[in-house]
Amino acid sequence: MLVVYFSSATENTRRFVDKLQLPNVRIPLRANEPELVVDEPYVLVCPTYGGGVSISGKQGKPVPIQVVKFLNNPHNRSLIRAVVAGGNSNFGSDFGKAGDVIAAKCNVPYVYRFELMGNDEDVATLRNGLIANAATLGLQPPRVA
């Protein structure tokens, strides 16, 4: 089972993914880093940008540009099986909005949302859910050492 994630310089998403203790790889933060190309089905974990757009009425772009670039590669996009989004509940109805956008564009289930870097319950719920539903989602079960 592979978790592909993007984390900004705040590292909140990286901290959450690290706690899942599942194989993972990070979408590059900077444009000068080599492009990430995956070779197996994965679940994408993505933070939400531009919170509170529904409150402010401004046009927002909740999916980080690095994630858009990664998913614009048809090979990478063909292997996504589910999406998980982070965010801030202060964003109101935009909490975890990146997951809604990615799920709709890639036609995959939006399986979980968490706040900031998640808590222990978020980690356990997502980890157990991904493992229990790996076959249904089209993910390889994690290897047991």
Automatic annotation (TrEMBL):
UniProt xrefs under InterPro entries: Flavoprotein-like_sf, RNR_Ib_NrdI_bac, RNR_NrdI
Gene3D superfamilies xref list: 3.40.50.360
Domain of life per record: Bacteria
Pfam families in the cross-refs: Flavodoxin_NdrI
One GO MF term: FMN binding
Family: Belongs to the NrdI family.
NCBIfam families (alphabetical): nrdI
Cited HAMAP family: NrdI
Function: Probably involved in ribonucleotide reductase function.
Protein's name in the database: Protein NrdI
